[in-house]
Amino acid sequence: MVLGLCVATALQAQVSADSLPERRGPVDSFPHDPKYYRTYSGFLAGRVFLSRRYNNLRMSDNDNQQPSFRYTPNSPINLGIGATYNWLTINLGFAFKFLNPGREDQGETKSIDFQSFIYGRRAILDLFAQFYKGFYIDPSQLQGATSPYIKADLRTGQLGFGYLYMTNWKRFSARAAMLQSERQLKSAGTWLIGLNSTYVAAKSDSTMLPEMPGFEKLPSLRRVKSFEIGPSFGYAYNYVFLKRFFAMGMLTGHLNLNYAKEYTNEGQNTRWTLGPNLSYKFAMGYSKPNWSAAITWTEYWPNFRTNNYSFLARNGIFRVSWVYRFVPGPKIQRAFKPIDDIYQKSYERYKRLAAKLKPSSILK
User: CA-CA distance, 183 to 37, in Å (whole number)?
Assistant: First the structure.
């Protein structure tokens, strides 16, 4: 439906995106340097994509009695369609069988996976809520195993957010790299500063350890949970070459205060630690005035330690997409007017608040 909408309104427009002046909306009220990136506020960016979401859990015992191993969900590849209009992005993906052959031996995974990445003019907001049941361990990670080890009763949950302010937002566009709703014209980088927090929980009806020879000597473990919060610091750079090709890397370090608790047959143990973890975003592709093709990858690496075990809970999304940017027709513009009104009212409230919080240069 979204793709059909995009094609229909594109035929109505019959004009290239760069032949029109920038259609400024509230998000463009913060002036940027037009020599470095081109905005498409008021344009519709329709996309077709292939993606895969995942939520892995790596475990190791602190005494190194057994090699580390990783629980992996049987996550399918999705084919989907979506659209971006100013600040709003909606994507719908479907796991077709022809894209996921030969996955039966990895067991069944049930999941609810919500990941939202909001790329503003000056800041980035990441939100995720992931709940998975049913994992497997690849046989290459277990000594003597010839087939995947299935752990159908293992359940995990992750809730988290990350906020990053881009110091050089006037010249660096995160949207150009990650959404392709804008277009980076010249290479630019930016320092990142912000805050992040993550909650991770995992439990099993029996034991979270593989029920295989060698693991019975490790301390029992039925459930574990962790909460962490702390500041974030990083750097991002979008390299533009041969006029239309781009490659963007964004690496962020987090220094978190972590609370972790493990539940064993012998009782409960709590541990407080202060330590780092990482997150990154990567994008590369080809961008013309009207369309873009790109690969994007976002991943978080929450890690924590209990008295007996160490954990790395990786979550993320990998996507290959093709995006077409165009001016929507009059009917579609009327349908999207409430979106513009909501943002315009929010921006007006922000201006009134900022005027009270002098100096007024906060808006510059």
Answer: 5
